[in-house]
Design brief:
Elements lengths: L1 H7 L5 H4 L7 H6 L1 H4 L5 E4 L13 H7 L4 E2 L7 E5 L3 H20 L2 H13 L3 H14 L9 H14 L3 E2 L5 E2 L2 E2 L2 E6 L1 E10 L8 H29 L3 E12 L3 E11 L4
Parallel strand pairs: 8-9
Antiparallel strand pairs: 1-3, 2-3, 4-7, 5-6, 7-8, 9-10
Helix pairs in contact: 6-9, 7-9
Length: 265
């Protein structure tokens, strides 16, 4: 990986692509949530000794194949493991999320085509239903879905349709954009995600009000991004904002934000 990075003058997933973990698919499907929460994993040393295929589990396999490494010197009875670097983290998490999505929603390219149509038509109702379906398809980690996992799911769908994320490294008020991509020539779409936690026993009117409050927060945040995006991203002349409020127990609400075109006041 180091030699390739020097030769290509670019950081990329060289090690990961040299042997993609398709053989791990069976284990990922049975332990998906665990596969997405691998920081500071404790592995009993006794688990490394099993040679019986039927008793193999995901964590020892990830350690033996290099997807996990020791976070600190081993104790007498256990190892503390972590993901070794950002290349492995990004690539492996994408593989896990893609596997989970394909199992639950089927062909990603076909579903991505629907998502693209909803974006193009500014269809908030269909986006709400679509993203709610994504939320219910993702693995639950500690009673909720990691926001990074949701972002990865959306990114993988866009990628399946050939769309590209615009990584401008732009920060507004110290915050990096959640997801900004080029929908068509000269047009960018920005998703702003707000996560809310609600008790399952909360009354319907209360959680609807909470969703609206989070959507308003997201819209307010979008307003701060429009002009800086047009100033910083030369290949985009138009920015469309879409606010998302996500509650892992209650689904998603979406609202189409204001459209800003370069040169407008």
């Amino acid at each position: 990986s180091l030699l390739k990075a020097i030769k290509e003058r670019n950081l990329d997933s060289y090690w990961y692509r040299s042997g993609q973990p398709t053989f791990l698919t069976k284990f990922i499907r049975s332990e998906t949530a665990q596969a997405l929460s691998l920081d500071q994993v404790i592995l009993p040393i006794s688990d490394l000794g099993s040679q019986i295929v039927e008793k193999l589990t995901l964590t020892p396999l990830l350690y033996q194949t290099g997807y996990l490494t020791m976070a600190k010197p081993p104790a007498a009875t256990a190892l503390t493991l972590k993901i070794p670097n950002q290349e492995v983290r990004d690539s492996f998490e994408s593989f896990v999320v893609e596997t989970a999505l394909e199992d639950r929603i089927g062909d990603l390219t076909e579903r991505a085509a629907s998502l693209l149509e909803f974006f193009q038509n500014n269809d908030a109702d269909s986006l709400t239903k679509f993203f709610t379906g994504i939320v219910t398809s993702l693995p639950i980690i500690s009673r909720e879905i990691n926001e990074r996992t949701f972002r990865l799911a959306v990114f993988l769908l866009l990628q399946a349709k050939g769309l590209r994320e615009i990584d401008s490294e732009l920060r507004v008020e110290g915050r990096r954009l959640v997801l900004f991509f080029q929908l068509e020539p000269r047009r960018g779409v920005l998703l702003e995600l707000k996560h809310l936690r609600l008790d399952s026993k909360v009354a319907g009117d209360t959680w609807r009000d909470a969703f609206q409050k989070k959507l308003l927060e997201a819209e307010t945040q979008l307003e701060k991004y429009y002009q800086p995006l047009l100033d910083e991203v030369a290949e985009v002349d138009e920015v469309q904002g879409i606010a998302l409020a996500v509650c892992w127990d209650r689904g998603v609400e979406a609202k189409i934000g204001r459209k800003v075109v370069r040169g407008n006041t």
